[in-house]
Amino acid sequence: MTVRKFRSYLRVILSTFEMTLRQNVLDGFIVFTVLIQPLLIALLALWMLQAKSGEQAIYVIVGSGMTGLWSSLLFISGNSITAERWSGTLEVLVGQPTPIQVIIFGKNLAHVSQSLGSMIVAYLVSSILFGFHLNVQQPILFILSIFLTVIAFVTFGLIIAPIFIMNPGVQGWQNAMEFPVYILSGFLFPIALLPDWTTPFSYLLAPYWAARALHGTTSMGTPLAEIGFSLLMLIIFSSIYIIISNFLFRKMLYKTREDATLGFQ
Amino acid sequence: MNAIEVQDLRRVYKTTIGVIRRKIKEVVAVDGISFSVRRGELFGVLGPNGAGKTTTVKMLTTLLIPTSGSAHVLGADVVSEADLIRARIGFIFGGERGLYWRLSGQDNLRYFASLYHVNPDDSRKRIPYLLDLVGLTDRGQEKVEGYSRGMKQRLHIARTLLHNPEVLFLDEPTMGLDPVGARELREVIRNLQAEEKTILLTTHYMFEADALCERIAVINHGKVVALDTPKALKNLVSDLSVVEVEVFGVSEEILDQLRQLPGVDTVSVEDQGQKQSLHIHTAHGSEAVPTLMNTLQAVRVGGVSIREPTLEDAYVRLVGGSS
């Protein structure tokens, strides 16, 4: 890829990011999914933890924020191509020179980034309303973890969206996919509490490594090597997702052009 | 080199029917059409609903893969070299969709300009120019959801011109517009023609095709039934006159009787609410009127007039007078 092309794509990602955020601010469903629902989960968990220490509170804040990230990814990023199809813009997007993956990347980046807002709100509620003293143990690694988590979630979204449009039947399972991932990824409690046979499934999920990295950087006593390994896994998973998504997008575009399903008939 | 080359292009849609015992049904939308469009030409594709106009445009704009045949735009193949084509063409499909309604017209253009890799400096100059060209300067800051259908159509035109494409595909751009909006849009198309852009325009409005196009391909049931200049197409019916009869309730049986009369070429019916207007193409001109009236004895008749044939009459002859 030439530098000029890279800059063009970067501009597309940024303008898609901006355009998506501006549209989402006005969408009640999106505001609920990325802000209200994770906040409710955080409030419930914080009430239950009122008698415990602040260290567990930060676990809850990070965990509830991650529920927002996952819900946003599953419901909003997963539907990102379908939504364009329904609004009649998918044909326009496919018929222009920028690869559609680049556009969907920008959209997913906006969806996932905005859901980080729920983590900030939960942090404020926790310290102001519940009076917890909150410390992030490894602030620099925490920011790096957030960045790699966002990338991993965005690239995961690049896989889900074409699968949903090629297989509408799979999309029907969206609701059923929400809570198992919360649990298997250890968002709100460690996966050590789950039966042993579920552990391999957790290892196959990028959200698990993201949760491990974020919980590790906010908690005391997590070895740096463990955090580093989680970050490495996030990079590996993101790379794999990009490779798979390129294949899926090519397949999806050919199939939709062949089946005449780009536009909503 | 021609801007557009189409050779034996065919497109078949497959749909399933039935719930338990599903069957695949094939519908031939475009059935082996061939034509070419010169650079700088405004070429019309004329045909009734379902004739295959939009399918043809979608194949040429790389949005649909042909079942067989070939199509080249600016020398590039629409299937294997789609990426080469997309940066050099613009397209609009009739209707209001395809825009981001929660954004302003100006923001829509700014976003699409980035997708077409228009340099930000150029984009800042071009967007006000295009908004002015399509008459939306005063409303550019408003959200698209508040636009009328005509305004959305004009915004589509502006969108498609952002990257200054060499070839434009306009699929029924005036569909559903009020007469003033449609006239303004035709004026924009004329201006584009003056800029020597290659334009492929589909429409089912005869006067629009007559007024704008240098050559017209008439398609029906997916096939090209005529391809010529509007003048030459009109000559196809120069031997005929058109008798227009206003009637109130006419049966298929009487229409069939009219079609059997000597000298009658085609009979078409246009519904106008309570009444219908019969367009009878006849070689006998005014002499045919007494015979026609005799056949219409049982029907309440309003006015009768005779006129010279138009492109619409040529079209009716080509696609059949049953509509």
Task: Describe, in plain words, how this protein is organized in 3D.
The complex is a heterodimer of chains A (265) and B (323). Chain A has one domain (3-259). In chain A, helix 1 (3-24) packs across helix 6 and helix 6 (100-128) crosses helix 7. Chain A contains twelve helices and no strands. Helices cover 78% and strands 0% of the residues of chain A. Chain B is α/β, with parallel strands linked by helices. Chain B has eleven helices and 14 strands. In chain B, strands 6-7-8-3-9-10 form a six-stranded mixed beta sheet, sandwiched between helices. Chain B has a four-stranded antiparallel beta sheet with strand order 2-1-4-5. In chain B, helix 3 (105-115) crosses helix 4 and helix 4 packs antiparallel against helix 5. Chain B starts with a strand and ends with a helix. The model of chain B has no long low-confidence stretch (mean pLDDT 88). Chain A binds chain B through residues 8, 11-12, 15-16, 19, 22-23, 26, 87-89, 91-98, 103, 254, 257-258, 260, 262-264, and chain B through 13, 58, 61-65, 83, 86-87, 89, 91, 93, 95, 97-103, 107, 110-112, 114-117, 120, 159.
